[in-house]
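Worked example 3. Consider a protein that binds 6-diazenyl-5-OXO-L-norleucine.
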Amino acid sequence: MVQGAVNWNTGMSQKWLQEYVDDWVSFYRKHTSEGEVASYIPALKEAKQDHLGISIIGMHGMKIRSGDVDVKFTIQSISKVLSFIVACMERGVAYMLDKVDVEPTGEAFNSIMHLEMKQLKKPFNPLVNAGAITVSSMLCGETSEEKLDPLLTLMEKILGHRPNINLEVYESERETSTRNKAIGYYLLETGFLESDIEVTLDTYFKQCSLEVTIDDLARIGLILANDGKDPDSEEHFIPRQVARLAKALMLTCGMYDASGKFAAYVGIPAKSGVSGGIIAVSPPRVRNEPLPFMDGCGMAVYGPALDSKGNSTAGIRLLRHIATQWDLSIF
Ligand code: DON
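Given these inputs, the predicted complex is written out as structure tokens:
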């Protein structure tokens, strides 16, 4: 049974928090029946509709995991945050912002309409497909392997292992993604792309097909919460300015045309993907009373049943509940 308001002052042992989170995952799992597993990429249809899991990693080793935590899934649109970060590290923030804007669209992630109707000088933002495909074209390298190597190296440094490309999902998307090809060719025609169109699209399809777990995404979220720095080794994986820019984009554009509602009701930077993952970042917060994860944490949920915007139905509800209970909102 889901709890009402809790006085977190009364003790915050890991075991106690774990029991709450287990309770909330069980409660919110029923909302998986309200969504649908993505099917426009045939290989994604194999996901289990009723899966729901969460991983939360705090600054000093505190870790809460609950539900379907060990499922591997493809990162999909969450890769857009990482490719933008790597492109900023390679090309510089000023150059990237000259080529891709930072404005929310209010449109679906794969919308083409606004590109032509608004006669844009640059795509709206790096977290919708048009912006992300432009960013993929701006990664350094001649081939998709060369372009993705620094992204994989960054993930390897943060995670301690190098993620694989799920070849079944990659091939499934490459064979079926006529809309992304249409977006890519429109970007080519308007002069936005900086690399060969086929290499650009191949890079985009491969980055979406990287295999991760919620622990991987929560760890990346933790690094972003700490402005790009590993809280234990103090190594700066991502420059502070780039990490902060990525969080601003996640907050304003990360949940597509549901970003406003997510900011209003959950209030932390996040990014979703059509395989059902959501990465969320809770920066350190100052309050008058002790609350869980006050130094900040990275969180990730997996729940492949999606709503009409392409976001995990149960995952969003679970994050909203936790954000309310633990007063996570940055506002
Ligand atoms: O562009 C596509 O179709 C996918 N590979 C990625 C889309 C995605 O994850 C959108 N997320 N909600």
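Take a moment to read the result before moving on. The beta strands are 36-37, 53-58, 63-67, 73-74, 211-212, 270-272, 277-282, 297-302, 305-306. The first strand starts at residue 36 and ends at 37.
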